[in-house]
Structures are given as C-alpha cells and as structure tokens.
Amino acid sequence: MNKKIKRIGVFTSGGDAPGMNAAIRAVVRTASYYGIEVYGIKEGYQGMIDNDFIELNSRSVANIIQNGGTMLKTARCKEFFTPEGRSIAANNLRHRHIDGLVCIGGNGSYTGALKLFEEHKIPTIGLPGTIDNDLFGTDFTIGYDTAINTAVNAIDKIRDTAGSHNRVFLVEVMGRDSGFIALAVGISGGAEAIFIPEENSEMAKLIDHFKNHSRRTKSFSIIVVAEGDKQGGALAIQQKLEQEFSDINVRTTILGHIQRGGSPSARDRVLASHLGYEAVRALQNGEVSKAVGIVGGEVVLTDFDVAISKSKNVNPELIKMAEILAN
Ligand code: ATP
After folding, report:
1. Are both 139 and 285 inside the same structural domain?
2. Quick one: which of 146, 133, 10, 130 has its CA closest to 67?
3. Residue (of 33, 45, 87, 73) closest to 276 by Cα position
4. pLDDT band at 200, cuts 50/70/90?
5. How far is CA 36 from the centre of its chain?
6. Which atom of ligand 1 is nearest to the CA of 107?
7. I want to staple 19 with a disulfide (CB 3.0 to 4.6 A). Which of 66, 169, 186, 268 is the partner?
8. pLDDT tens, position by position, 143-163
C-alpha cells in the first residue's frame, strides 16, 4: 500500500513559460482539496539547496492564473548536477517532511528529479513547461500556444510594414533544436518559406523560388526561421540572399524573449490547470518519476527516462502542407 502523501513541494525549473503560474495554482488548489500541504520552492533546484521554501495555500495562488512568468521564479542550478548538491536538497526536503514533488520544467529538470529519486527516494511528478513543445509524452507543452500566438501577432504587424516597402522580412523565432514554433508560426502567419532545424533543403528552394519569380521585386515576403535552423539563423540567411540577389531588400527581425512573456492563452491555462490537477492525483496514487501529458485528448503518464530519451517530431505532412499553401 502507498504511503499517504501529506505534504508536497512544487517548483518551476529551466526556462520559464507562460502558464507556469496556472500550473502552480492547480497543484496548490488540488492538493488543498485533498488535505495535502504545499510548499513552493523558489528558483527550482537552487531553492531546494538554499532552503528557500514558502508555504502556499489556496489564497496564496489567487489572482495569478493570468500572469506570465512564474511566481516561484525559475533557475538553472549547477550544484544540483552533483550528488553532493542533491544530498543537501534531499536533506532540506526531509527536514520539512516533504514526501513528494511536482516539477514544472523540461527534460533537464526531469533528469534531476529522476536522480533525486534514485539517490534519495523522493518521488516527483513532472509537468511539461516549455514554449518549445519538444517534449515527448504530450501533444502540447505549457507555454507553446501563448508563444506561437505572440509570434504570429508580431508577424501580422511586420507584414504591414513589409507590404508598404516591398521588403522581404526574415522573422527569427525560438526553437534551438526543434521547429514546432517556427512551423506553427509560419503556417498561421502565411509565411512564404519556413526554416526549421529538422530540414536542410529550404535555402536552395528559396533561392530557386526568388530566381523564378519576379515576386521578390514586386511584392513582399515573410519568411520564418527557427533560431536553430541549419543555415545559422535569420541573419545568415539574409547574408546569403543578399549575396545571391543584388536587388533584394531584406530585413531581419529576431523576436527573442518576447515569445516567453505575456499573459498565457486560454488554451495554455486550461492545459496547465488540467496537468497540475493530474500531477497531484498521480502522486497520491503512488506514481513516481513520471511526466504527465495529454496525448490525443487522454491523460498519459510517461516514465521520466522514456520522456527524456525519446524525441517528439514535427509532423512531416504539415511541412509539406506549408509549402503547398505558400505558393
Ligand atoms: P528548458 O526546456 O526550458 O531548457 P529544462 O528543464 O530542460 O528546461 P535545464 O536547464 O536543462 O532546463 O535543466 C534545469 C535544471 O535541472 C538544471 O539547471 C539542473 O539544476 C537540473 N538538471 C538538468 N540536468 C541534470 C542532470 N543531468 N543531473 C542533475 N540535475 C540536472
């Protein structure tokens, strides 16, 4: 029989994402409903080591669901990579009688939690909190929907100025290793081309396209580039286009961190609330070292080692569709 969970800790770790507050709120309120006490741990694993805990109750998470960022703050913590750092964290948790954790973060944070369980038997359930949407075990991660909406709003504005000057605009979006953001933003922003890390043929296609269409001088184009694209990002692509075409008028906008900020979309709030609720229930059911996600509308628990080692791929049919729709 599972030991009854009486007190849990919740923390956000790695990069921040809009919707993390909605997830914290859901964890705290679900736990309160079941009579479980909650400590918030500040700045992820750093706060666990520095003993930076705050008691949370239903009222302390009032009026945060609409806020971007994370009320608990987040951090990357070098010390937690070491067994010594994790021992200090485990002692601090034991000292407070915390018998379960909810970690809102990405693969790195899941890896840390897995080690904490292997070495100190403190169970963690993970929630996928990253704008990149590149975590296995869930169709969507918390923050992705808000980030793509922020980027599309920016593109709509850039389109106005691009059209007024017959310019080609390269818009660089986040996505160091994956093209989920770029693909969604490119499709919904009506981009003429989309550069993602998973594909390597877009540059040749774009040059061909501009050679064969008078469009580059008579109209304007929006091209979306993931920061991790193989050409080296939007500025590198701009250089290549300028080398190839002397008459082209290219501008680059790098959206950067605005994609991480802002009030979470309704979709992210619902997702974060649902996953936060399920995380507490999973801990209560004795689940350990698992990430909660939603796949095809169903709640799914994925072992951390599987979630960490498997990759989620962009849908190749969407890449093909984006090309067809850009014609
Ligand atoms: P994001 O997707 O935003 O990068 P993430 O959770 O993958 O989120 P990381 O910076 O990789 O972010 O990890 C967050 C923290 O988790 C690290 O700073 C570290 O404290 C802990 N962590 C990551 N990898 C490990 C590991 N191999 N062993 C122990 N702890 C780790």
Report:
1. yes
2. 146
3. 33
4. confident
5. 28
6. 7
7. 268
8. 999 999 999 999 999 988 877
The total of structural domains in the chain comes to 2
SS (H, E, C) the chain: CCCCCCEEEEEECCCCCCCHHHHHHHHHHHHHHCCCEEEEECCCHHHHHHCCEEEECHHHHCCCCCCCCCCCCCCCCCHHHCHHHHHHHHHHHHHCCCCEEEEEECHHHHHHHHHHHHHHCCCEEEEEECCCCCCCCCCCCECHHHHHHHHHHHHHHHHHHHHHHCCEEEEEECCCCCCHHHHHHHHHCCCCEEECCCCCCHHHHHHHHHHHCCHHHHCCEEEEEECCCCCCCHHHHHHHHHHHCCCCCEEEEECHHHHHCCCCCHHHHHHHHHHHHHHHHHHHCCCCCEEEEEECCEEEEEEHHHHHHCCCCCCHHHHHHHHHHCC
CATH number of 183's domain: 3.40.50.460
Q: Are residues 226 and 268 in the same domain?
A: no
Tell me the residue range of the domain where 164 lies: 146-261
Pocket lined around ligand 1, Cβ cut-off 6 Å? 13-15, 45, 76-77, 80-81, 105-109, 111-112, 115, 130
Query: Minimum mean pLDDT among 1-10, 51-60, 61-70, 206-215: which range?
Result: 206-215
Q: What's the confidence (pLDDT) of residue 212?
A: 80
> How far is residue 148's CA from residue 157's CA, in Å, rounded to a whole number?
14
145 is catalytic: no
Contact between residue 291 and residue 307 where contact means Cβ atoms under 8 Å apart: yes
Is 325 a member of any domain?
no
Q: Round to whole Å and give the CA distance between 291 and 109.
A: 11
Q: Which of 46, 72, 111, 138 to mutate to test the pocket of ligand 1 (most atoms within 8 A of CB)?
A: 111
